[in-house]
Design brief:
By secondary structure, the chain is mainly alpha-helical. The protein has a single domain, classed as Ferritin (Up-down Bundle), CATH 1.20.1260. It is 63% helix and 0% strand. It has 4 helices and no strands. α1 packs antiparallel against α2 and α3 packs antiparallel against α4. The chain is elongated, with a radius of gyration of 15 Å.
């Protein structure tokens, strides 16, 4: 599905962070040696989801109705079925790609900043596979 409008991009980001939170919680159960880190990531994902939701609600303006080009949900498909450290790192890479691609396309300054902060937070995560 094309992410061609403000609401679609923000909804995708909210759902993405929600799925990430669930993924991290399940991965924590499967990876005892990374459990604390993964629980921390789950909590951060829930927080980001709430911030994006708040931004979506507060920043609905006429300017947000402008079409967005170049974003497609299929480009950010994620395998949430494997809880290996290398797959968790791959998931993070896709999430960062989404925020890198989506942030500049949002024409509402505050909403763009929220997505940029999400990118920054994901970018600070250390890879689990070493």
């Amino acid at each position: 599905m094309a992410l061609n409008q403000y609401g679609a991009v923000m909804t995708f980001a909210i759902e993405l962070e929600g799925k990430l939170a669930e993924f991290y919680e399940q991965a924590a159960n499967a990876n005892a040696n990374h459990a604390d880190e993964l629980q921390s990531r789950a909590k951060a994902s829930k927080s980001r989801s709430q911030k994006i939701e708040q931004s979506r609600r507060e920043n609905v303006t006429e300017i947000t109705l402008e079409a967005i080009e170049g974003l497609d949900e299929a480009d950010y498909a994620i395998d949430f079925s494997q809880y290996t450290a290398s797959n968790i790192d791959a998931v993070e890479a896709i999430v960062q790609k989404f925020y890198t691609d989506a942030s500049p396309k949002i024409n509402v300054r505050e909403a763009r900043r929220v997505l940029e902060r999400c990118l920054k937070e994901h970018g600070k995560l250390e890879p689990l596979a070493k």
